[in-house]
Amino acid sequence: MGFCLQAFIALVLVQASCGQHDYPPPHHPHYVPPPPPPHHIPPPHPEPYPQPCSPPHVEPHPHPYPHPHPVPHVEPHPHPYPPHPEPYPQHCPAPPHPEPHVEPHPHPLPHPEPYPQPCPPPHPPSHPPPYPHPHPPPHPPIHPPPYVPQHPHPIPPPPPPPVYHGIFPQHFSFGVSNGAYDHEGGYLQDGAGESIYDRWIHNNPHLILDGSNGDVSADGYNHLEEDVEILNNLTVRHYVFSLSWARIIPTGCGDVNKAAIKHYQRQIELLRENQIEPIVVLYNGDLPQALQDQGGFLSDQFPRWFTEYANVAFECFGGSVQYWITFDDPFGHCHEGYGEGTLPPGVGDNPGVNEYICGHHLLKAHADVYHLYDDSYRYIQKGKVSMAIYSPWFEPATDCQTDIEAAETRLQFHIGWFAHPIYVGDYPKVMIQRISQLSELQGLCESRLPVFTRKEIEWIKDTHDFFALTYFIGYHVSAVSDESCLSPSLNGDAGSEIVTIKGDDTWGIRKVVVWVKQQYLNPSIFILNNGFVLADRSLEDYSRIDYIKKILIHIYDAMTKDDVRIYAYTYYSYIDGFVRTFGYTIKFGFYDVEFDCPAKTRTARISADYYRHVCKYGCIDDPCPPRHHHEYFGEHVVY
User: Fold this and answer.
1) Rounded to two decimals, what is the model's pTM?
2) Where are the domains of the chain?
3) What are phi and psi of 283, to 5 degrees?
């Protein structure tokens, strides 16, 4: 401030000395008295506080603020040093006349300019002080971050990298399947005969959940071209379907129905035109009722009847068919048809006996048909023949050794019953021993299990060109004591009971194929049937897609990690139809059918799109993984 005032006075003196200002006379209304002479200028007002414009230097007080921690009293030294002229070191010389002591304010202000100054003050703050209280905060105030408006459509974070499950080899075949009674309809149409399914269901509608029958079903008999177009749209490489024995030979043996022959020839021709491999099942439950009246599977004439029927099929269709299945699910036909009586023909009066007789004759019939093809048709037609065995998985209910043994025994009674005579020779040893022991315990003179002769064992052994299996479900089993099996039954003979049904155990299929590999010298495996059931007609069947993905992952793992030789997978079914005792209450198909509509309209579900992708590219994942993720099996063909 002193410098500014001195400059102002000097400027006035210079102007006065140069005569640049003419002051008006005293009587003028705007008269201003001239400034006094320089020696009369009063000294500037003392400035006790430092000013922004070069304030005079003021030496700080030696004790400007009280010490926060007082120094404790110390007795003076008996021989003190002479007093120092300057008790505290000073940065600048002390003023000649020290200022009077002023007690500091208990709450000093952060800026010591309490009065307006002649020089412009600094820019005012852009916002009011955060605290109105004169005491400063203990810490600098924390201001929230500036507001940033959110984008109306924020960009989501990048998705995690996909997990790929591999690609099946190019020679692997994907297909679908169906059964004659499930799908065809056409009851007695074009001279067809009555089957055991027709008779049993018509006489016992109360045994079907919805009281329905398969007289019309999806009417596949009259929608041949449309259904083949659906198969072509799915891009399947093979189609498994069964012939109706009662349609081809209405009485079971004798005259052949030419209309039925033309129908199946046309079906096979359409499949070939669309590059779809037909896989033909000779028997899937529709035995002519005329033969059942003569004993059916319990008659020792059954192998002859079946061989005559197979000969007609080989002769009429063999030129266009490379894969033949003699029986699909022999366990179900014998155990449920002739043991429990819960399926056609419903013979359940002698469980634990009739089912073994049925299986005995069925194995003989299979061997006779295999040798017929081997001797008369293989050289020309160059096809393959096998039997499709229903192969569920049985898991021990506990880690107890008895339950572990019970699960293994159950596998032998279920799969080994028909696979062991064909792949090894004769029935499984555990099956022979248990039935013999229990028969004796039950007071019988001989085993309830029929005995093959040595010649029959050799005749049946090796009657296969591949291992065809069906998988739908897995079970938990628990061991039961032999004393509780006083009544003959297959469940008692197997020494176990089912305690839990695991309907979603997709991992069971991997265990089954590994078990088959270990038991039967790693045969080539053809998965003939596998499916997922829903109870409603929804077209958005995401759960079916999830099931198929899991199944294919386990199959892929069995091939790549367990070295199981699997070369085909078949989904049952591509279209809804009649399902045994469930009627139309459950749905297996990729296509929904309007059963109440005479046209039987077919509508694709979303699972059809997924399976089309699988069939076309061999990828479990949709979309397929990038090329560098591909895992190939090599150039060899597993079959």
Assistant:
1) 0.74
2) 1-57, 175-627
3) -140, 125
